[in-house]
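Hi again,

Forgot to attach this to my earlier email, sorry! This is the prediction with adenosine-5'-diphosphate bound. I've pasted everything inline since the attachment limit keeps bouncing my files.
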Amino acid sequence: MDREVFQEQFGLLGTSQEMRHVIDKIMQVAKTDISVLLQGESGVGKDVTARAIHALSERKRNNLIIVNCGAIPEGIIESELFGHEKGAFTGANESREGYFEKANGGTIFLDEIGDTPKNVQVKLLRVLENGEFFRVGSSKVQTTDVRVIAATNLDLWKLVEDGSFREDLYYRLDTVQIHLPPLRDRQEDIVPIFRKFVQEFSARYDSVFKGFSDDARELLISYRWPGNIRELRNVAEQLVVLEKSQFIDVERLQKYLKGRQHQGSADNLPMLPNGEGQQSNTQNEFDRRDRELVYRALVELRTDISDVKKMLANFMYSTMPGKDVKALPPAMRSDVGNSGVSEMGINLNEHALLGMQEMPKPTHETVSEVHESEESAIIKFFGGDEIPSIEATEQFLIKQALEKYDGNRRKASETLGISERTLYRKLDQYGLA
Ligand SMILES: Nc1ncnc2c1ncn2[C@@H]1O[C@H](COP(=O)(O)OP(=O)(O)O)[C@@H](O)[C@H]1O
Ligand SMILES: [Mg+2]
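Structure tokens for the complex follow:
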């Protein structure tokens, strides 16, 4: 297949040297079973590339499974990838196959691989090395035959240096790396690709595009395109639809260029981190049952965490000499004396029903405040540099409280800020009864 045919077939446009190089590399590796690591900003064509590689491979008749590792909550990513057995956790009413099983014989595309939690990275390494994995809740080795394509818009090597990405997994994925350059680094591609998009949308919307003034055209080229081709495509569509039959001058064009970027701006932030069109197919594949499972796992996780937080806050408060709420980290103050039911469930419920598009996220400022103060308080409290697990913390606090009140459960639960029933449940759960 030559380059032009490939580009026509897969819609990967551009004739710059960078693009030609990328396309030649895609065509070279597609037929093999080699793992491929796609690197590039949001909107440069990583998804399109992964699909093209699969479609050109010997595996094209089997599944291409697309997994957005950054969009799956940490608590369930392992069971999503590797499946689980019936009863592996609350809500696991049936055994279910994971994405690696579904991809057997085909290709798995691990998008946003840099966001994979570390405990899952080690399992990924194993399945990539010899095709072996375990379903959650099972000790039976399973095998699968998959070709792996991974993608990231982060600098993976930097993550390795920071310690958040395993070096061995990095090398395993890095067999062939394809770097998709940002649009601003291949400016000669901008106008021709834009033209193609305009043709496509004009036909679709039965609209006429009148063209650009010279300086509007210059702006189109010099603009930094933080959202890359995805953004270029959106702009083309908007112009065709909303500026129907208008001649496009700079002012008109500027309205459609996202953010405040203007000509020559140094602002290089990607503008569409979770933009439309980037929503992973994985999410669409969640059926109702999956969602329910996810929802339950999340509610449970969040309830447990907020229980522990409350207990810790109440315990610290009750052991403080002056009993001054203000001496507690700000994030814990509201938990003192608060033994109400966790409100998290309600939020989560809504989000789960919305199809997991958005997890409740605290604002930027609260994130750092909460994390720093809580973490340092907990570390100080336990006096070590290793943070204990939630379970260990819970057990420790429960034992301390019971000791303090000579086994009086009512008083202990009061101190911990949980209901007596919850305390009983936890004593039972930890075998402390
Ligand atoms: N080289 C290209 N030529 C034409 N369209 C492209 C090209 N690269 C990407 N696109 C289009 O841009 C949008 C974003 O591409 P996508 O592959 O989802 O980017 P990424 O996964 O890197 O964020 C899609 O609509 C895609 O069809
Ligand atoms: Mg993508």
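Strands lie at 36-39, 64-68, 107-111, 132-134, 141-143, 147-152, 176-179. Residues 11-14, 40, 42-48, 193, 229-230, 233, 277-278 surround adenosine-5'-diphosphate (ligand 1) (CB under 6 Å).

That should be everything now.

G.
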